[in-house]
Amino acid sequence: MKIPFLGKVRLHWCDICQVPLIRKQCSSCGKSGRKIQVTPPGDIRPAFEGDLSQLIKAVEDQYGVESAKIFQNMIKNQILLLNKVPYVDRMDEIYYLGGVIGLLRFNPLKENFELVPKLALAQKLWHSGASNWVEVDIGAKEPIIKGASVLAPGILGVHGNINLNDPIIIVCQYEVIAVGLAKMDRETMLNSPRGVAIKTKYRKKSLMVEPISHSSWEKMIKANRQSLVYIEDEAINFIEKTAQDFNNIVVAYSGGKDSLATLNLIAQSDVPYEIIFADTGLEYPETLENVKLISKTYGRKVLVDENESWDFWERFEQFGPPTRNSRWCCKSSKLAPINSILEKNFPDDDQVLTFLGKRRYESFGRSQEPRVSQNPWIPKQVSASPINNWSAFEVYLYIEARGLMGLLNPLYTKGFIRIGCWVCPAASLADFSIMEETHPILLEQLTQRLSSIKSVNNFPKQYISWGLWRWKILPAKILKLLQRNNIKYKIKNSSSEPSSQLQFSMTRSPSPCVLGGFSSYVSANQLLELELINQLLPIVGETQLNEELDLLHSTDSRGNRTDVFRDGSVIVRDNFKASIDAKAIDFIKTIFRVTYCDGCGVCIYNCEEDALFLRNGKIKVDTSKCIHCMRCNSFCPLLRYRSDASYIIEDV
Ligand code: SF4
Ligand code: SF4
Questions:
Q1: 150 and 258 share a domain?
Q2: What is the C-alpha separation between 548 and 567, in angstroms, rounded?
Q3: What is the residue-wise DSSP string for 566-633?
Q4: Is the CB of 611 under 6 A from ligand 2?
Q5: CA distances from 575 to 277, 515, 627, 629 (A)
Q6: What is the predicted pLDDT for the residue at 564?
């Protein structure tokens, strides 16, 4: 699996003070720390209560109560760091006293968290009386140490109720020699005359030093004091310098740790600011409470969009769930409120500088974005990211050092890594499993809707349990998982009513028209709402509603007339055969756009002629201003985040 490089990873370990460092120098003892090799992308974070209880539970489930007690004792009074690494779902390297002691991952097959210990931890667990281990013959020892798999005939004894893919401790003559993943269950291991029983994963000695003192947030802050001052000063300088060119300045607060750090940095600077919050309507209750707390603490009203929000679930019924390939909800639910807040509170023509808690380590896309950029969707907004180069660990250190832990959204301590909408296709199965504990009623709302899509389409149960609904195009790792487990799944239209979404069939074979030029035929799969379409169709050409014939005439600048009938038929005409298909697509897109318009306002702010406005929450064009440039179609999120093939069926 190719691991993306998102930025230089800065993590050292002070062996004297036994704390992690974000720069080489330790501010407590003055010595240089040793560099820790971190697997990229390297967005290290501290383990909170939620993470620790998952970890301890995984040890208990796999190795027994006694091992869990020993493990709990071992990590007591130490700060563990987690580093998210690529896997089919969430997987974190666990850093203990400056070294990796294992992996904590969410196993989709078992639907729970599991620990894959490295050799040093496996030794400790085994000596504590752990289960889930096998004893191998002395003859197998050398090949296993060199990396060979454990073959069934070489197994002398199996301890514990071992299932496929369980992490297994491999022992030879009272010595732990490796850790591997079971490729057979207990019975097969004991009875099979041949075959790979365990695939060896860890065999080299891994570092696990013994603690010489307790670790704490206080010690970490002290050891990183100078480094923190350095990154904080750099961020504040950036804020003050960037703000010089703007009169309107806001901080976009989201309820997450990154925006909390950003907000506090702005508050420390001498820049005047307002706070805005884009409520998507799918926020966790903790987030909404947190926004109130922020407003009180920073002594200012948080600016929100007071318009009625769009109905996510209505759209869900029409389009199916949002997916990682098509997040139709994202732009509408975030851009609409931001557009509206900025327009209402900053009605002058000046742009609004918006400080965001965006960081390069969050994703490849973010690592490529400049620190200051024009928002392509909101002409009024220039975005700037003071903590662009900070890791999650640096953000948390800053939050703790500046006494802001009381303002941190409590969801982080429950095991969530990122906090956004609670229905998000970017969430992992690990997130949904935590949600099952923390917000069962919200999760049930989603599950019920997914269940009806599953039964209408006859999808396998993994549509929900493995979260297959989160993709329109399955990634290779998920396809492999399905293949390996012999699960058949073919993605279809995933709304709960098949073909409930407006779709068009078009023929790419224009024929000569009796009125002159060429004509092409398009047909919709349902009746068209002509009165509504008439609000926007004038962007394509001069439009008239013919009530008698129940159709819309649209005439272009060369006098070619296109007819849109209520029954769903559209006859497109043009002088030129070569341009008629593009014209038909313009009609389809315009009809689709106005039919599903949710009033997000993105196109309004991007029309240079100021020709668009909302009427009853739907887009409408001012025909006296429109110059038919068609630019607005390309900005509408309903079209931009959807492949044409999802609503245009071409008959070539
Ligand atoms: S961007 Fe404005 S001028 Fe251009 S087609 Fe759309 S409404 Fe008309
Ligand atoms: S037509 Fe305009 S207002 Fe409506 S959804 Fe598209 S971009 Fe938003």
A1: no
A2: 14
A3: TTSEEEEEES-TTTHHHHHHHHHHHHHHHHH-----HHHHH-TT--EEEETTEEEE-TTT-----HHH
A4: no
A5: 50, 10, 20, 19
A6: 93
Identify which ligand lies nearest to the alpha carbon of 532.
Answer: 2
Q: How far apart are CA 266 and CA 272, in angstroms?
A: 8
Residue 221: how many CB atoms within 10 A of its CB? 18
Distance, CA 540 to ligand 1 centroid (Å)? 9
Residue 356 sits in the same domain as residue 236: yes
pLDDT in tens, 55-82: 999 999 999 999 999 999 999 989 999 9
Q: State the amino acid at position 483 in one-letter form.
A: Q
> Looking at ligand 1, which residue's alpha carbon is closest to its atom 8?
626
Ligand 2 atom closest to the Cα of residue 335 is 8
Question: Residue 91's closest CA among 122, 113, 60?
Answer: 113
CB of 638 shorter than 6 A to ligand 2? yes
d(CA 293, CA 295): 5
User: How is residue 103 written in tokens?
Assistant: 């992996």
**Buried-state track 268-297, b at ≥16 Cβ within 10 A, e below 16:** ebebebbbbbbbbebbbebbeebbeebbee
Separation between Cα atoms, residue 188 and residue 546, nearest integer Å? 76
The rounded Å distance from CA 335 to ligand 1 centre is: 19
From the CA of 621, which ligand is nearest?
1
In this structure, the residue with its CA closest to atom 8 of ligand 2 is 600
Does 619 contact ligand 2 (Cβ within 6 A)? yes
508 and 640 share one domain? yes
Q: Report d(CA 564, CA 241) in Å as an integer.
A: 54
Count the domains in the chain.
3
61 and 145 assigned to the same domain: yes
Range of the domain at 520: 504-651
Ligand that lies nearest to the alpha carbon of residue 628, given by its number in the listed order: 1
Neighbouring C-beta atoms of residue 252, cutoff 10 Å:
21
Q: Which of 139, 131, 123, 111 is nearest to 182 (CA)?
A: 131
Question: Which of 542, 624, 628 gets mutated to test ligand 1 (max ligand atoms within 8 A of its CB)?
Answer: 628
For 602-646, how does the pLDDT look when each residue is reduced to its tens digit (9 = 90+)? 898 889 999 999 888 889 999 999 999 999 999 898 887 677 777
Indicate the DSSP class of residue 236. Answer: H
Nearest CA to ligand 1 atom 2: 607
Atom of ligand 1 nearest to the CA of 539: 5
Atom index in ligand 1 nearest the CA of residue 610 equals 2
Tell me how far the alpha carbon of residue 619 lies from the centroid of ligand 2, in angstroms: 6
Cα distances from 608 to residues 103, 238, 396, 634, in angstroms, run 53, 32, 43, 13
Q: Do both 289 and 348 map to the same domain?
A: yes
Return the ligand number nearest the Cα of 589.
2
Ligand 2 pocket test: pick from 638, 639, 647 the residue with the most ligand atoms within 8 Å of its Cβ: 638
Q: Are 358 and 319 in contact (CB under 8 A)?
A: no
Residue with the smallest CA separation from ligand 2 atom 4 is 597
Do residue 158 and residue 240 come from a single domain?
Answer: no
Specify the CATH number for the domain of residue 319: 3.40.50.620
Distance in angstroms (rounded) separating the CA atoms of residues 182 and 166: 5
Please give the number of the atom of ligand 1 that sits closest to the Cα of 621.
Answer: 7
pLDDT in tens, 287-322: 999 999 999 999 999 999 876 666 788 778 877 888
Q: How far is the CA of 332 from the centre of ligand 2 (A)?
A: 8
